[in-house]
Every structure is written in structure tokens, then in C-alpha cells.
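Quick start: read one record
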Amino acid sequence: MLRALERQRERRYQEARDLRADVLLVTRKSESVIRIERDVHAPIEQVYAAWTVPAEMTDWYAPTDSFKTPIAEVDLRPGGRYRIGMKPPDRD
């Protein structure tokens, strides 16, 4: 999970399928528990927005500024969906 939260874009997951594969490896065990702790040196409002405001999510999750993020959706209700879609610079 720390890789997903990396401050430097090039050190984050470059493809969602890689993140999914790693999450499945951890969560397929009944005794698995995920606890994420990370110090982010930014105002709490900015960090919260990066996780909850679609317009902010598009900037936070793209691996580079040349990527486009046409899909950024979040439903903050319990059980709500979270969806990010990115396009590399060579695809329109």
C-alpha cells in the first residue's frame, strides 16, 4: 500500500492491474489485515481532497503530467465505489 501512496509519481503503481494483483495477494487470506499509516507533509485538507474529490484525484494518481485521467469517481458512503481511469500520453 505504501507504493500506492508514494509521493513521487514514478514510484507509484504505473498500472492499476499491478495494484489489484498485490491487493489480491494480501486479501485472499482470512487472517489478512491491512493497516496503512503514512506521514504526508501537506495540509490535511489537501490530502483529504486527493482521496475524495474527483478533480483532485486526477492530479494525484496520474504517474506523470502527460497522462490523462478521464475517469475519477468516488462514492464516500460505506460500501461506495472508488474508480480511477488513466490514459497514457500516446492514446486518445
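The chain has a mean pLDDT of 83.
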